[in-house]
Amino acid sequence: MRATKPGVVTVTLNAAIDQTLECPGFTAGAVNRVVAETRTPGGKGINVAAFLAGGSRPVTAAGFLGEDNVALFEALFRDRDIQDRCLRLPGSSRVNIKVVDRTSGAVTDLNLPGLRVPEEALEALGATLDALTEDHGCFVLSGSVPAGVPATIYATLTERLRAKGAVVAVDTSGEPLRHAVAAQPDFVKPNVHELGELLGRPLKTPGDVGRAARDLHASGIGMVVVSLGAEGALFVSHDGAWRALPPPVEVASTVGAGDALVAGVLAARLDGSDLETCARRGTAFAAGKLARVGPVPPTPERVAALVGAVRMHPLGNA
What's the family (predicted)? Predict the structure, then answer.
């Protein structure tokens, strides 16, 4: 998986503002007092762009943003030197509210509806991506699909971009993932639940997950990474199969950890690293992100310290 052109483009069809409310003793149906609030720009592709920014490759964000609440995204792009090629649509990007009760450890999610994307906006996005293939060799298609967009969108874009010689990574779920896999992107990153749903069978043991990852790789996917949450991730490609276990770390927020994993693996792979190195760096990058709220990457020094603490286990052939 080597890109012939330097730039990386992340495509976010359903961007979000992540609003976190700290509310000790939160109780449904009662008056609750919020003691702290944070708002950060998000959406899986936006997160990946933020994590890749500042590395050795120029990063561009594409996709859709709502005109009514675009300021947080524009500030992120300026601060992280991300080229902004997102198309503006009438209305607001969705807001994802997390109510965090640290006394009990409970987290309550309230996800608002997002933009409705008209057909002409999809055509404009396709034209934008075609133009970006002139100097960008890798495209990351990630996140949910908003209203008005067909579930085949990632498959369509994968075929379109690969025909132009681009490396394509996909991180989504459900029907969009099912269609995308049939188009054979170079890299996919489902979690365990998404992989089981995709293959239509329960994955109850590590062996089940390993066999499922190999089956997906054998179907024509160059690299398969299966995230296991706090238990790390499985990595399968033509040069081997590994399980990576992260070291214990302080956790401020798990939001975006999977996107940090994608960014870390992708950056290492595009630099020509072998699968074991990709697994180590991706796992360390994701672990380092956990101490930060929002799409803020860990420092290179923190990643370097964590790389050596990642425990690696080769997967057998069973």
Answer: Belongs to the carbohydrate kinase PfkB family.
User: Of 260, 279, 257, 258, whose CA–CA distance to 269 is shortest?
Assistant: 279
Mean pLDDT estimate for the chain: 93
3-class SS of residue 292: coil
Structure tokens at 178: 């099912």
Q: Which amino acid is at 183?
A: A
Catalytic residue check, 109: no
Q: For residue 311, what are its two tokens? A: 């425990």
278: left (phi over 0), alpha (psi -120 to 50) or beta: alpha
pLDDT confidence tier of residue 1, bands split at 50, 70 and 90: low
| Active-site residue, selected from the candidate residues 109, 215, 259, 271 | 259
Cα 264 to chain centroid, rounded? 11
**Contact yes or no for 146/14 (Cβ under 8 A):** yes
pLDDT digits (tens, 9 = 90+) for 121-177: 999 999 999 999 999 999 999 999 998 899 999 999 999 999 999 999 999 999 999
CATH of 7-11+44-86+134-314, one of 3.40.1190.20, 3.40.630.190, 3.40.50.1000, 3.40.50.720: 3.40.1190.20
Pairwise pLDDT comparison (148 vs 45), residue with the higher score = 45
- Cβ-based burial of 232 (10 A; exposed 0-12, middle 13-18, buried ≥19): buried
Which pLDDT value is given to residue 318? 43
Q: Which helix (H) or strand (E) holds 152?
A: none
